[in-house]
């Protein structure tokens, strides 16, 4: 099978992106379950602080380049950093949960159902965002 044909195929692209987003969503959800049951994150605090710092700096610069004032860019960078740090910690906690047998606890049927629901939700998110961005920059 020719890889170039698959790369240019919008059906394959949509399926791949929605599946990747769905796997990430499930990883975050399982990570939240794991962090609530254990009461801790599997990632060291130093790594979480590093993720926060990198996203804070890049987020602040991003918002300032888009026209935000100094305080607004710092607040936007802080919000982006909190979200990215929480998502990373939750996702990696979900990976630990999976390797500790969490899927067997939940059952495969529930995980596959969640995957299907998250794939549909991610496709709706992708299409909504692409439509809004297309209208905004047209």
Can you describe this structure?
This protein folds into 2 domains: 23-106, no CATH class; 107-138. It is built from 6 helices and no strands. It has helices at residues 3-8, 10-38, 45-65, 70-99, 102-106, 108-136. α2 crosses α6 and α3 packs antiparallel against α4 (70-99). The mean pLDDT is 88.
Written as H for each helix and E for each strand, in order along the chain, the element string is HHHHHH
Q: What number of domains? A: 2
Sheet/helix structural class? mainly alpha
What's the overall geometry?
Answer: flat
* Helix percentage range: over 70%
- Tell me the radius of gyration: 18 Å
* Low-pLDDT segments, ≥5 res: none
Please provide the count of β strands.
0
Major beta sheet summary = none
Report strand %. Answer: under 5%
Mean pLDDT reading: 88
Number of helices: 6
N-end to C-end Cα span = 36 Å
């Amino acid at each position: 099978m020719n890889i170039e044909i698959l790369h240019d195929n919008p059906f394959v692209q949509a399926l791949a992106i929605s599946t990747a987003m769905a796997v990430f969503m499930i990883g975050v959800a399982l990570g939240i379950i794991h962090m609530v049951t254990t009461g801790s994150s599997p990632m060291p605090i130093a790594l979480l602080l590093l993720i926060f710092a990198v996203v804070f700096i890049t987020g602040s610069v991003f918002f300032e380049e888009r026209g935000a004032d100094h305080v607004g860019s710092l607040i936007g960078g802080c919000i982006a950093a909190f979200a990215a740090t929480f998502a990373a910690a939750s996702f990696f906690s979900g990976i630990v949960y999976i390797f500790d047998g969490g899927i067997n606890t939940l059952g495969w049927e529930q995980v596959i159902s969640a995957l299907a629901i998250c794939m549909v939700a991610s496709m709706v998110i992708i299409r909504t965002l692409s439509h809004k961005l297309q209208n905004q920059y047209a």
